[in-house]
Amino acid sequence: MAGERILEGVLPSSLRAEMREAVAVLTLSRPEKRNALNDETILGIEAFFLSLPAEAKAVVIAAEGENFSAGLDLSEITERSTVEGVSHSMMWHRAFERIEFGRVPVVAVLKGAVVGGGLELACAAHIRVAERSAYYALPEGQRGIFVGGGASVRVPRLIGAARMADMMLTGRVHDAEAGYALGLSQYLVEPGEGFTKALDLGARIASNAPITNFAVIHALPRIAEADPRQGFMMEALMAAVAQGSDDAKERLRAFLEKRAKKVTEF
Ligand code: 1HE
Fold first, then answer.
1. Catalytically annotated residue among 140, 190, 235, 265
2. Alpha carbon of 198 to ligand 1 centroid (Å)
3. Is 218 in the pocket of ligand 1 (CB under 6 A)?
4. What's the pLDDT tens digit per position in 219-253?
5. Is the beta carbon of 33 within 6 A of some atom in ligand 1?
């Protein structure tokens, strides 16, 4: 069942967006080109996150067809000067920053090719759900180029620089199981089940206190990379801000009065 379409005038034809309750779904819609990412699509992703409706409390990034994304649209690489190359890469960085450090958490649904810039896009999300068909590669080495959409920063955080170097130097492809074991995805599901799983996770995320979601997106990654002494202080401050909110007080009261859900497995 489709949701209510949003941002129709804002997005290029390679993207579509809809609301599913409190979850905004952004779908890569260029399956005939394996969802290769051209400039228009990257700018559209940025526009989507800048124009996210206030009622959206989480985002799911999904893809039409069998593949998440075949990465950079190779037909668009023209004779770029060095300076133009820098600004092209920085355009990707800007768009993906909107994902990683935006207003709400983002879940990506991976399947088929999650390759090059497609992996870079996936890594900007906070949670990755991979269907068993997903496979991961960084073919930039074979194409004579380098990653430019943030992979050198985000991929090593997930799997380490040595594994990323192996993927780039040897063209190694990791299948969905390996990717799950390495930490490229946090969830591994059967083919066709990724979207439902991601929507379910999105709905859970949307039901959190906004201050907690804010802390997880904006404070946690900074604390994790800080010197521990600064990190502990930032954590204490963030914890106090969250605990002091009316939302936290009401949620804690609800638990003590047995009105809140207990911890359950899913
Ligand atoms: C594309 C692209 C693309 C497909 N740019 N057009 N990425 C890559 O090096 C991956 C290149 N793509 C592939 O290796 C394969 O297409 C796949 C393994 C992903 C899928 O294979 P398959 O057999 O399902 O599809 P196909 O027949 O190869 O492709 C279908 C069409 O999509 C075809 O166009 P058509 O007009 O001939 O029908 C392909 O040309 C087109 N297509 N992938 C443009 N990537 C910020 S820097 C990031 C740097 C990178 O991302 S480098 C990695 C680039």
1. 140
2. 25
3. no
4. 999 999 999 999 999 999 999 999 999 998 999 99
5. yes
User: In the chain, helix, strand, coil percent, each to 5?
Assistant: 50, 15, 35
Burial class (CB in 10 A: 0-12, 13-18, 19+), 263: exposed
The phi and psi torsions of 181 (rounded to 5 degrees) equal: -65, -35
pLDDT tens profile 26-50: 999 999 999 999 999 999 999 999 9
Q: How far is the centre of ligand 1, averaged over its atoms, from the C-alpha of 173 (Å)?
A: 15
CA 84 to chain centre: 26
User: And the tokens for 218?
Assistant: 């904006």
| Local confidence band at 1 (pLDDT 50, 70, 90 cut-offs) | low
Range 2-34 burial, b when 16+ CB lie within 10 A, else e: eeeebbeeebbebbbbbbbebbbbbbbbbeebb
Residue whose pair of structure tokens reads 């075949």 in the numeric block: 70
Q: Which residues pair with 61 in a beta bridge?
A: 26, 108
Edge to edge, the sheet with strand 113-115 lists 113-115, 135-137, 174-175
Query: pTM for the complete prediction?
Result: 0.97
Is residue 121 lining ligand 1, measured as CB closer than 6 Å?
no
Q: Is residue 75 within 6 Å of ligand 1 at its C-beta?
A: yes
Candidates 46, 100, 120, 131; catalytic one: 120
| Residue recorded with tokens 């804002």 | 10
